[in-house]
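W.,

You were right to be curious about this one. When I first looked at the sequence I had no strong expectations either way, so I just let the prediction run and decided to look at it fresh. Below is the sequence, 314 residues in total, followed by the output.
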Amino acid sequence: MDVAAVCRPTRRPRFQRAAVPPAFRLTDNDVEIVRVVARHRLIRSTHIAALVGRSIDRTNDRLMRLFHAGYVDRPRAQLDYYPTAGSAPMVYALANRGMRLLREWDGVEFRSAAVSRSRRQAGRPFIEHQIEIVNFQVALEQAVRERGDLRLIPADDMIASFLEPAGRHPFALRVTLSHRGGARAACVIPDFVFALQLANGARRNFMVEIDRGTMPVIRSDPRQTSFGRKMRVYLAAHAAEQHRRQFGWKNFRVLVVTTDQPRLSSMIDALGDLRMPRSAAPSLFLFTTFGALGEVSPIDRHWLDGSRRPADLI
């Protein structure tokens, strides 16, 4: 009796490039995938599939080939997920070869190869925070795509029209806060910035704060890091009309996405306790939760302002 040997295909490692990469020919669609990864810093395969309009199976196949060819990276901190969530969508970052590709195709300039290395070596808290940002971005892009009366203006286009030169953190707001007779410099850098242009030409500018509950809402010492201190910086910058001088905006609002209703409520309470001259506290901030965003589009009327009144973005 003859026994046939069964050869099982070798499973490629998830986080180590194969010594012999799979057959691969770069296509225009692959370049678009690399562009999407570059634009979002860290992004899940499911997000990429939604943004490029392809099936998740086809997208995963091309991402696998792009990874082994050195165009994209898979941050190793994802290893934390797989003992309990082996089917979780893979997170990708831009690799050095992807940077060179976009430099050649689009003339994109990157600060240095250290950018790619830092994303590849990103820790789990940073990845989780970035993925929540991308969740919001993708939901927003899909919501705008489904409407004919809105245009999404990305951050890069907004920077190009600044009245003042953009620095390392183009949207940073820097103010001086007073405390017990003294003064102290403070700064806030939003997680995400965008604008919506309406059919009549009117524009709404937004800064987004993604809050995963990792910092206290308030502290007894206002000089220490807290979400209440962030809100105070935004209020001071708005009162000083820094947005007009620095960005050329007539106005803006701050969108806060947080973990749950109790934390949202505590944020609104903290906002109500802030006493600042010429403050726009109730109307400057809009609040919602991750759960609410998962049910409807970010544009719909499920936000609460600082007076706990329902509001929408347009």
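Here's what jumped out at me. DSSP finds twelve helices and twelve strands in the chain. And, maybe more interesting for your project: The longest strand covers residues 203-210.

Coffee later to discuss?

I.
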